[in-house]
Amino acid sequence: MDPQGERSVSEIISELEKAWNVADGAAFARNFAEDADFVNIRGEYFRTRGAIARGHQGIFDTIYKGSNVQYQRIGLRALVTGGLLPHVKSTLKVPSGPLAGEHNSVFTMVVVEFQGSWRIAAFHNTLVVKGPTAVSTL
Amino acid sequence: MDPQGERSVSEIISELEKAWNVADGAAFARNFAEDADFVNIRGEYFRTRGAIARGHQGIFDTIYKGSNVQYQRIGLRALVTGGLLPHVKSTLKVPSGPLAGEHNSVFTMVVVEFQGSWRIAAFHNTLVVKGPTAVSTL
Of B39, B77, B136, which is closest to A58 when you measure between CB atoms? Predict the structure, then answer.
């Protein structure tokens, strides 16, 4: 795996976390490619860094106000030359409001090299459903 | 965009749909890379084609028995050389059991060229939450 790419993925995850925890939508979006794709926990599909910045600022200012997130990388591999695939577990603590409590999710990112730097090309997030099921629901 | 890659993505989506609708887990998994990553609608993270085949056979035989799925491609772009990023909307109709009814989801795939053929390297699925929210929840 490209060592610079691997370092960049670690930095990106750390910067996403920091940006969330200071409620800065533009900073959260900074590591996304201009034409990035984003699917959120409600199955809503967004495009572009600007939409990702605005959407996050919206939730930082309202339903997730005062929240704290911690990210843990649970997977990373090379896809193709210039393309890495990290998987991350998120633990989000929301202090108040309709979503008060702790929420876990798992997201997939596709991180690609573009003009010498690594950017998030795609991000897809799913809430972890609590409790057992008879079979694992794919 | 690589025209052969684009055709392959269309074929892959069609074959996934057909495999689901005849409840064949091995056929569903056939277009995945051996080391593919998969995150399901419960936020559960799986690896390998074999796990994807077994997991799907499990749900085809139980909670999704007799179900019918329709896929609609809602996005496709090139990521890097040899890497494509399709987004797909899924409409699943389940005839009976605890999940009876219609379920919509959106999934991201990463499709990569490997030894002259295109394979799904990563798949991530999220249920579409029904109903409006005050802000779009990213």
Answer: B136
A11/chain B closest Cα distance in angstroms: 21
Give the pLDDT confidence of B95-136 residue by residue, as tens digits.
999 999 999 999 999 999 988 899 999 999 999 998 765 445
Q: What are phi and psi of B50, to 5 degrees?
A: -65, -45
pLDDT 10s digits, B33-61: 999 999 999 999 999 999 999 999 999 99
Distances (CA, A) of B36 to A75, A137, B72, B78, B123: 12, 17, 22, 19, 8
ipTM for the whole complex: 0.93
Whether B126 and A81 lie within 8 Å, measured CB to CB: no
Among B87, B126, B135, most A C-beta atoms within 10 A, so best to mutate, is B126
| Distance of alpha carbon A81 from alpha carbon A130, whole angstroms | 37
Q: How many CB atoms lie within 10 A of CB B119?
A: 20
Three state DSSP letters for chain A: CCHHHHHHHHHHHHHHHHHHHCCCHHHHHCCEEEEEEEECCCCCEEECHHHHHHHHHHHHCCCCCCCEEEEEEEEEEEEECCEEEEEEEEEEEECCCCCCEEEEEEEEEEEEEECCEEEEEEEEEEECCCCCCCCCCC
Q: Between chains, do A77 and B110 touch, taking CB under 8 Å as contact? A: no
Model confidence pTM above 0.80? yes
- B80·A112 Cβ contact <8 A: yes
